[in-house]
Specification:
Number of strands: 61
CATH class of one domain: Mainly Beta
Radius of gyration: 44 Å
CATH topology of one domain: Immunoglobulin-like
Shape: elongated
Distance between the termini: 112 Å
Oligomer: single chain
CATH architecture of one domain: Sandwich
Number of helices: 2
Structural class: mainly beta
Strand order of the largest sheet: 32-61-60-59-58-57-56
Largest sheet: 7 strands, antiparallel
Strand content: over 45%
Length: 889
Amino acid sequence: MRADLSSRTCLAGRLAGVALIALVAAGCKTEKDPDQPTLLGSPAPTAYLGVEYYYNWGAYGGEDILDYSLVNAPSWLALEDTSNKARQGIIMRGVPGLSGGNRGDADLGKTTNIEIVTTDGKMAGFQPFDIEVKPNVMSIEVDEFTEGEAANVAQKPNTSACAVPDLSTPGKHSFDLNTYQDDGAFEETVPVDSTTYRTYAKVTLEKPSVTRIHVAFELDSDFDPENCDAGVSAPHQKCEYGTSNTGRAIVGQDIVVLGSASDKAVDKEGKPLTYITYQQNNANVYDRGVLTFEPGITECYIPLEVVDDRIPEPSELAFIRLTEVREGIASLGAKNTGTRAGITILDNEPVVTVQTMKGGAKDAINADDNAAPTIYKALLTGERDGPVMVRFAEQSKGSGAQKDTHFEIVDVDGSPVTELVFPEEQDEIEFGIRGKAYSLSADDGYDDLFLNLAVDDAYQAGRQGYARAVSDSLLRVNLNRLITAQTFTDFTPTDIALGHASRLFVAGYTDTDAEVRIYDQAGMLLDTVTVAAAVTNTDIHISVAERVDSTATPRVTYQELAVGYSAPGSKGGQDVFANLYRFDGSDYLPVWGTAYETGSSEDDFVRWVGLSADRSKPLVVLAGNTAGSWSDQNNTGGTDVFLVEIEDDAGAPKEQAVRIVGSGADDQLAAGDLSASAPVLFGQAPMTLNGTSTTGPFFATGRANTKLNVVQVGADASEILRHGIYASGLLWLVGDSGGISYAVTEVEDEDNELTRSRNQNSQAGFVWGLTGNGEPRFVYQVNDYADASSETLTQSLLFDGDIVLAGNTDGQLDEDGAVATSNDGILARRSSEDSLAYRNWNTQIPRDMSFLDMVNYRDDEVMSLVDVAGERQLLVFSPEGRLLTPVAP
């Protein structure tokens, strides 16, 4: 901008004269106006206390040398006495807080409408601007640090930084450590000498100061030795290492600025760090000092030393604080109230893990005082000096079982032990856990107790020579109460299911009635539901569900039981019967007045029952085999597979729809599943179901009121489907075939293919994990090690993310196993993690045995209904296939 100080006028004149010869006329002559004085530039809008503010203005214009002045400028800001000699202009500079009267913080704030004016004495130009003065903030940061390791802090060369401390040389520090009796009471104080490892905190100044700055610093922690758990007073273990002090570092014991016997920190060339002054507290611990920033420096370092103790502890937190600026101008934090950084100290004590002998983290054992202990292995990792001990907790979080009440820790010989001791240079030891017999009241529920084996952190806290745990739970062990052969008198069970509160439902028949018997996990009979009088010698199938009616306000949860069976009826031959029961708080009572009967005019056999879990009305789904036509569904020839849906209508059964699937030959239903939104049926058809070359195993999905989606996947006459489940978004088809191995072959831009190879010598079990359109994702097989015997798979279930299979062998399944004496029962687990022994195993039971059904108890046990030489009983297996209940003679 510019303004005129005087006006300039162009004068015009005319000279005239009369001459006899000529007339001379004179006109106006105009010169170009000079440019008005103009300022060039835009100064920074922000200045900082203690930091030089500088700006070199440019200018042009005017008829003479330009002069400059500031209007409404803060006291700290001024123009230099001499103008810019290289070009027109002026230098403006100042140091907020120092120049113009050393006003310090009084210079903070924003000054608006400052004007710089330039003039040649006649004309002038000016430019307004604002400047806000902010504090020069000092901040601090530090990386987390692990005991026993020199910090590896990458630092780029920086001319505006102090010399970086050398971290390679350990230090030494001595301190007094309290020791405690077993109950935590103070015993004595012992001196401890420890090695320290170096790190540092980085302190940053936002802008380089023109003066030296001295800032005081101090280590700090929220640790309070007087802050005790209830019922104790200091000194006590539950004070220093009590709940309130967990995770709080002890300054002087966990971290210091300088160890009591350490050399002072030097730079990477071995030169002393002149910018650090160390100071001691009242206990003669170097926990504080003064850091000096020379003019122009914006980054300095506070050396620290972390003590490498032998105490197992969680990650601990200390603080490094900047407490006071003793010289110079700087702001400790944005509000100048102090600043600090948290220092996380990670423990480096040896870490203990516990595994089964196969490497698993889950097991089940019998709650039996007289049983031999189950052996486990404890593994130690990490550096150590001398023997290391581990003490297990009496009771861990989330675990109902208590040590010495429900289980005991023993050595491999069965003798109780208080602690595990790892001798020097031995990183693996074996120990045992023995379950103890226990009983539960009705108020305790029907579940087994389980233990989460955990390290006793409360005991080990503050004690040297102990290992820390890799996690809060080292091993989960279910304490099985079904420890004797569970046989049945005058009752033939045919199906089992797990219901609410872990009730075990066992369906079957007596000489006179069809029944469902309900047991707790110890095998104690809780209730008997009579399903039908005079119905015997027929398979009774059941399904239980916790149904949530989300349409009700508030939502209502029901515990319900569906029962299906076949018996002579009014439709002709064997008919289909269904019952529905609901729990009233003490008993399961019938919802329908009588059993619902349906079927064709020929024999209809129920093979599976499903019960919906999430709808406003109960839906009972039954499937099986029929030889006749049903409703509007015609028999295709031979035996077909049927699906019928029955809905509860205000306490009365109402048949919704029927659907029949068949190939024209004798088709068989192998299993059903209602885990998805619609029923899934698994079956075997000797002929094609869809007019293609596929035969044998198939699955069908959908509701009975629409055409089912049928996918047939067999390709060889020897492939027999015997069971199936829907789990993890896949359909798992289980059966056996002769001489065929399977693999999933990936095909570019197309679905995977199930590849068959005739490279086996014997019959083996197969498992195919397929998508809804039949695309294979996983295949597993169960075959004897010598590929010489026949394996048959008849049952399956999902267990802890894997699939567990049951069936039979007439040979020797594993090389180190027993040779079959007859049609031995087998149990196997398969996982995509095929290198993990605890998730991939075979168990062979040397008895003539058939698996009729299996249920998954809490991912802790596999409960099986078996037939052993004509006698039916319940067997319980551990997650690794160990038989827990004896087989009845």
